[in-house]
TrEMBL record:
One of its GO terms (cellular component) is membrane. This is Tryptophan-rich sensory protein. It is found in: Membrane. It comes from Mycobacterium spongiae. The keyword Transmembrane helix applies. One of its GO terms (biological process) is tetrapyrrole metabolic process. Residues 1-23 form the signal peptide. The lineage of its organism: Bacteria, Bacillati, Actinomycetota, Actinomycetes, Mycobacteriales. PANTHER family: PERIPHERAL-TYPE BENZODIAZEPINE RECEPTOR, TRANSLOCATOR PROTEIN. Its main location: membrane. Belongs to the TspO/BZRP family. Gene3D superfamilies: TspO/MBR protein. It is a multi-pass membrane protein. It comes from the Bacteria.
Length: 159
C-alpha cells in the first residue's frame, strides 16, 4: 500500500470524524440524555469504540482500493472511488450535524439511510478492487444500517 494514499485517506477520514466531534458540543449532553431511546440502544461508551475501528477500516481499505485501481491501470475507477469516498465522508459528517447540532431527528434518519446506501456502495467498489478489502469494509454498511434503524426509532419515539 502506498503511504501517500494511506495518508490522504486517513486525513479525509480524520476530517469527517473531527467535524462530527465539533457538531456535538458538551451542551448537547442534557438534550441527548432526555431523548427516549429504544431498548437496544448501545451504551454511550460503545459509539467511540465502534467509530474509531470503523474509521480506521475506512481509511485503510480505501487506500488499498485506490492503489489497486491505480496499479492495474484503472485510473477512472480510482477517481470514481475517490468521489464516492468523498460523498460518503460528507454524509458521515453531515449526520452528526443533523442529529446533534440541529436536533433534526427525521432528517437525521434520512441522512443515516443515505449513509447506509453510500457505505454499501463503497464496500462494493472496494470489493471490485480487492475482494479481501471489500469484506473488511463490510462492518461499515452493517453498522450504518443499524444506526439507521436506531435513528429512525429515536425519531419515532420523540416526535
Amino acid at each position: 500500500m502506498n503511504r501517500s494514499t494511506l495518508a490522504a485517506t486517513t486525513t479525509a477520514v480524520a476530517a469527517a470524524s473531527s467535524s462530527g466531534i465539533f457538531a456535538n458540543p458538551q451542551s448537547n449532553q442534557d438534550w441527548y440524555s432526555q431523548l427516549r431511546k429504544p431498548p437496544y440502544q448501545p451504551p454511550n461508551a460503545a459509539f467511540p469504540v465502534a467509530w474509531t475501528a470503523l474509521y480506521g477500516d475506512i481509511a485503510t481499505t480505501s487506500a488499498v482500493a485506490i492503489d489497486r485501481f491505480r496499479v492495474t491501470g484503472q485510473r477512472d475507477k480510482a477517481r470514481r472511488y475517490i468521489a464516492a469516498l468523498s460523498l460518503n465522508l460528507l454524509l458521515n459528517a453531515g449526520w452528526s450535524w443533523l442529529f446533534f447540532r440541529y436536533h433534526k431527528l427525521g432528517a437525521s434518519a434520512l441522512g443515516a439511510a443515505a449513509l447506509t446506501a453510500s457505505s454499501a456502495d463503497l464496500a462494493r467498489r472496494t470489493a471490485d478492487a480487492d475482494r479481501r478489502a471489500g469484506w473488511a469494509l463490510l462492518p461499515y454498511p452493517l453498522w450504518c444500517a443499524f444506526a439507521t434503524a436506531l435513528a429512525t426509532h429515536i425519531w419515532r419515539l420523540n416526535r
